[in-house]
Amino acid sequence: MLKIPQRLLGEALLNSAGTNPSKIAIISKGEEYSYQLLKESAENLARHLLSSGIEKGDRVAIYIENSWESIVSIYGTTLAGGVFLVINPQTKADKFQYILNDSGAKILITSSILKNELSLALENTKDIHEVIISGKLDQVKKYPHFELMHFDNAIAKNNSEVTFPNIIPNDLAALIYTSGSTGFPKGVMMTHQSMVFTSWSLIQYLRLSENDRIMLLLPLAFDYGLYQLLMAITIGGTLIVEQSFIFVASIYKDIEKYKPTVFPGVPTVYAMMIASNKENGISFDYIQKVTNTAAALPAEFIPDLKKIFPSALIFKMYGLTECKRVCYLEPELVDLKPGSVGKAIPGTEIFLLSPDGNSVPAGEPGILHIRGPHVMVGYWKKDELTREMLKPGKLPGEKILCSNDWFRMDEEGFFYFQGRNDDIIKTRGEKVSPVEIENIIYKINGIKEVAVLGAPDAVMGESIVVFVTTHDGSEINEKVIQRECMTHLEPFMVPQKVIFMKEMPKSTNGKIDKKELKKGIIK
Fold first, then answer.
1. In angstroms, rounded to a whole number, what is the distance separating the alpha carbons of residues 131 and 153?
2. For 134, which DSSP code?
3. CA-based, 20 to 30 A from 66: which of 134, 354, 433, 506?
4. pLDDT > 90: what percent of the chain?
């Protein structure tokens, strides 16, 4: 079968299913699913979405754990010309509802396992007119403004005649929500063109092929997790889907059983594996490529990772949601340039500028800027924030991405991360807004002032530290604050440490001086 020159995200699935229909595309919860079944299920879902009134550019929200259902939902949406947004299943009702309303999603695909947050979030949604449920329909509270449908019925063969829209590469493919300094998540707009380009750039430098079996431990809501799926389907490989890295022994069993060749992780995952290796000597010699991004991989981890993955190339990388990936270090250089995150990914350009826009020479710190087809269109319905991140480029009308991160470049052109320029905390591979945590803590009776900061952490990238002052007579302790955060926030947003202050340091304009507080946690 002649392959379609890939211009759209869904064409990767059509090509791989056409080339090798019986090959296993997805392994999830012990079940194996072929490319042909994935194609048919996604096409059936696409027909259902279109018959339910989805038009080109309409948003479809996917609030479900890593699973066969979430993967079919992503490809079904993109084949229907919709814009998918994957919401982390750990997201609490308030933020979940905000994302649904901000995106204007018309259809939600979810699971009855998440019924508690689901029922709360759906009470005041504005645009949802259908909810597709995996699991037990009767466990989900029904509201008059939307219909309920079982996922199995939505992907069953649909003989109704629908017209598939004409999609072009410039059309939106996805909204990827990421934390913002205002406390509200921002929807990063990605087109088919940018996501297809990025997939192939990553495939090229990671040296992937159809023989690769990629293990997915990271949530599909996280772009690092999402692109493991996109790359696996594009190359015609196999994706081994896991829920998370919480049940370590279970993960190790699946590694032994399915023998992945590619293992993407973050420093928290590798720290646990290093501890296991020191305890019982675990190692996996069939894994050929190990990748890391989100938080910097400490150079001290490399010798231990080589013991766990004796046959693997180790890729250190840096990226941000607004363009997916910025740079990578060739694995052959990991010992020669242990502190570097390498050079620009294929087909892109990166450079350093001073805060006033001037070029920065080698050896001097500067703010990293990114140029290429992988750069976002902007933030969904947030023009002012878009203008802050997308700057005029080298050509008329071109936009380049300002990372707001400080780097330096050595004489050979290799880049080194120096620090962040904004308040966003990067912990366990996730971007966390301090304002979002502060808003939750301020709701506790007796709290007077709150400041949330990130402290350097070799494993997590940054740990979350809370400074608080309280009103006289209050009996608030660290456990109370952590418990409140656990109730309202995702687990990765719960602070590791709470420091009680008699008085907060203040700047001349009366604001809490976070720079002064940071001096106490960065030695």
1. 12
2. E
3. 433
4. 72
